[in-house]
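Example complex used in Figure S2.
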Amino acid sequence: MLRVADVEKRFGGLLVLSGVSFELAAGRILGLIGPNGAGKTTLFNILTGFIRPNAGSVAFDGTDVTALAPERRNRLGIARTFQVVKPFSRLTVLENVMVGAFAAQSRAGDAERTARAMLDRVGLGAQTAAGASSLTLADRKRMEIARCLATRPRLLLMDEAMCGLNLTEMQAMIALVRSLRDGGLTVILVEHIMDAIAELADEVIALNGGLVLSRGTPAEVLGDPRVVEAYLGERHDAAD
Amino acid sequence: MSINFWLDLLILTCIWAGVAGAWNLLAGFAGQFSLGHAAFFGIGAYTPPLLAQALGVATWFGIAAGAALAAALALVIAGVSLRTRWPFFTLITIAFAEVVRILAVYFKGITKGSEGLMLELEPGFANYFYLDKWPYLLLAAIYAAGVIWLCAVIRRSRLGFRLLSVREDEDAARSLGVPVFMARANATMISAALAAMGGSIFGLYTKFVDPDSTLSFLLSVQPALITIVGGLGHALGPLLGAALVIPIEHLLRSWFGGVLFGLHGLIFGLALIAVLLVLPDGLVGGLRRRRGRQVRHA
Amino acid sequence: MLGQVLVSGILVGGIYALVAVGLNIVFGVLRIINFAHGEYLMMSMYGAYWLWRMGIDPYLAAFLVVPAMALFGALSERYLVRYTLAAHAHVKIFVTLGLSIALQNLALLLFKADYLNVRTSYQTSTLDLAGFAFSVPRLVAFGALLVTAASLYAFLRYTDFGKAIRATAQDATTARLMGIDVERVYMVTFAIGAAVVGVTGCLLIPIYYVFPTVGIDFVVVAFVVVVLGGLGSIPGAIAGGLLIGIVEQFSGFFVETSLRQVVYFLIFIAVLAVRPAGLFGQRGAEEIGLK
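Predicted assembly (829 residues):
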């Protein structure tokens, strides 16, 4: 469903990604991990269209989307959440999700029905009339997911979906992502919390220094000594 | 005071409620603060008499042509400001409006320059030319109601949601498939066309069109002031704002205009500052907050 | 002939650059466009004019006008602009616009719409250098531009307070965490912006008339200059000012005087369409202060 080939990105003289290639089959959950500065966010932004690579290509369902803007990719079926949640603050929860629904529907009545259904799906059905800025962080993340779902995506990219959640909220989020996958959605998770990756991901890619360091099942990658070293090295740096 | 004084007040209030509504569509919904709406207003005011002179066509045709011309200019503005963000959009609109004003003064052969154009048309419905004030009140009221109705409809439509989402967070909007440029361009064009219609009605009513009264920078500030007083982003804000601002302005001008030149503008400026600092959501926002408080207390 | 046009373009551009420097430093640090900047110029010109009526030469008047304008700038930041910094974009734009309208009309109320000018012994004298005629007051203004810009640049670069200002311009939150009194930086920056325009007013009054809306003519050019030169950059503002001065003089030479403004507005629009952050500006710089 998704094919990434030889993606390279430089910011000025700094090589952030180099020769990144992978394929992802439909209906699977891919975990993208790596220490800070590994290039995860850059890769994420290249996949969603917010950054263009200097070289290489991204194809979605056989269509080359490398040069497509985020709004065009969304119309092909790619949706994303944000690391720092980006609610439309002065709109209600329902209106936030209706913005997503309007991507595929043009009538307000249809969009509202879709939005309500998606809010029920993520468990926010009771808070449709609340202002988006009044929600807790966990609920804002749910709202973002509902907003994405309303655009009828086939691939959902989630940027640090677990970050900032407490244990209960994280369990609920994991259950939600799993149910989305079971409903046929393909998911890419950029994640720092390894427990979530271990529980959710069908396969994992570890990045370090802009290169694919390791790839395989969660157990294989998380047990890979190079991956452990990359993370330990980071912890070592942080302790300095 | 005579009935004509009150009619005059009502007509101007309606016209400005409509123009402010047009401005609000762009500023309040899309978050794009234009300070160049005088250009659209002026294009609307000049087009019907100029077309009537040149081709002898009816006023209605001129109004439509003025709206189309303003929308075309708006498309250019939207295209130019495509990659810029606040505050450049505001500066670009100022620049365009100044260019239009200077050109209107310069091409004396067509516009009579700063001397201005007197409207002398065949009386009747085709030209909407009457000596009485009542027909103009009717037209202005229909215009104001139409603009406000349209804004309320747009607010609940796909375009409205797209504009609000772009205003709140452009990146999030794009990730949800919102075509940012299209949405902004549409809003700019609709806003421009509506403002031009207001200008047309203003020109028809005053029967005189010159750069000072239809293209000056203060005319770009006027709809902004009205909307901010009434409530930015609320469909009814411009109506409330106009109902407050225009009568006060009118009275100030008729009391002090001849004697204390500048007092009216001084109060205009100070009022703008006061409203922004005390009631940044305008009257509508203030009323809502008060109602909210009462509910919470009860 | 064209050389002479170039010379007068550079000299006119010097004035534009001075107005733009004040506007730009305020934008760079506080991220607001001060629409009342032109009215600060108008006030300075009236100040210099009235001091001249009392027998003080405009250039000497600068020693009174500049501190007075600095004070006015500081006060307008402290009691007006400060309340808008955390507010929505529309509040930021329209509060200074309201101040601009109020000051213009206050001047109209006090001084009427008359065009006033001073008479000095040197205002029409010219200096012949290398075959070109240099107007003395314009040459003085240009010299003052260089001195003002150089001292401002040195102040920002080498003094502790100047460094605090630059730190605040880059990232106000971090600056605050580092113990910089950001509020004081804002107030001083506004005072500097107004003081620079105070200098400009005193230099301008021997060359130009003063009237209530005189600020508009200059501030509109200053916007163009700031966009050309890049927001927040002093060298950029000077380069942009000179460029606009030259373009204006040349276009005045080739097209009619009344269309001069159209020429630089079109340049302005074209620059923004092609390079949204300005000719010398960094991409993305215009967004820093937004959120």
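Chains A and C do not touch (no CB pair under 8 Å). Chain A has two domains: 1-39+47-77+156-240, 87-152.
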